[in-house]
Every structure is written in structure tokens, then in C-alpha cells.
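note to self: dont lose this again. the chain is below, predicted strucutre after it. 74 aa total, dont forget to put it in the shared folder this time
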Amino acid sequence: MLKIEHLNKNFKTKEVLKDLNLEVHDGSIFGLVGINGAGKSTLLRLIAGVYEPEGGTITLNGKDTWKDPEIRSE
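---
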């Protein structure tokens, strides 16, 4: 399960994601839809561990995607 709690991401003074909460359960299909600049790609890069969040946590099967390099390789 992918679980995102109170996620925040900024680029300089631009607030991109603020207090985002999300759960995606195993076996489900989930889509991200939004206008350009809504934060879709930023969210995916945060989940993949490319970007470091300013606040909040992202866990995949209970492991932090930023702190655990093994989970990023999956």
C-alpha cells in the first residue's frame, strides 16, 4: 500500500504541494488528473525518491521511500 501523510513540497518560494494525504491500496488502479502545474509530476518524483519532501511522509508497504534506498529500487 502507498500511504502519503501531510506531504509538503516547495520550490524556492513556490508552494507546489501542501498537506497532501493519500492512500492507494494494493491491487487498485489510480490515476492522477489535473491541469499543467498542479503537481502531478512532482508527486511522482517524490514517491520515486527523486525529490526530498519538505514535510510529511511517503511510505510504500510500510517503508519510507526517501530514507530507504532499497524501496526506491523497487
